[in-house]
């Protein structure tokens, strides 16, 4: 992998205006993310990654998690618009997020799931569910559980799930 292929952040060290070296940083995918995506896939629930990260990072994460697709370079208002667009098509949306930029989409999704341990206050306040330990597997089980309850004729006041729904995640 060359520096041009690296999918993280590169910080260059300059000495007298010459590159003396560089550091690279990248996020690690949580183990529970793999389990959550698998739970959703086995239930027939599509998943899509919406991220402000660049195309290379988004593709790498989406491919590693075996997601159904991704949208990269997504601005906060674009996340909200994508949620609304899918809802207008009759999709039932579960959205996970942790930042200020996710809050509008979390609020608009049928199920907004905030990552509580590392998330922002505004994300937590905008969501209908807060994961205190940021365990994505629980998020997958929650979405699946609500789908089962709905199919059995039980639904939460705000949240109604239908087969073939879509789960959105953010990085």
Q: What's the number of extended β-strand segments? A: 8
What composes the largest sheet? 6 strands, parallel
- Give start-end ranges of low-pLDDT stretches: 154-167
Backbone shape: globular
Give the mean pLDDT: 77
**What is the helix fraction of residues, given as a range?**
25-40%
Structural class, from secondary structure content?
alpha/beta
In whole angstroms, the N-to-C terminal distance is 23 Å
Count helical runs: 6
Record the strand order, biggest sheet. Answer: 4-3-8-5-6-7
> What value does the Rg take, in angstroms?
18 Å
Which percent range describes the beta-strand content?
15-25%
Spell out the helices and strands N to C. Answer: EEHEHEHEHEHEHE
Overview of this protein structure:
By secondary structure, this protein is of the alpha/beta class. It is 37% helix and 23% strand. It has six helices and eight strands. The strands form two sheets. It has a six-stranded parallel beta sheet, with helices on both faces. The chain has a two-stranded antiparallel sheet with strand order 1-2. β3 (46-50), α2 (55-65) and β4 form a beta-alpha-beta unit. α1 packs parallel to α6 (136-151). 35% of the residues are buried. Residues 154-167 have low confidence and may be disordered.
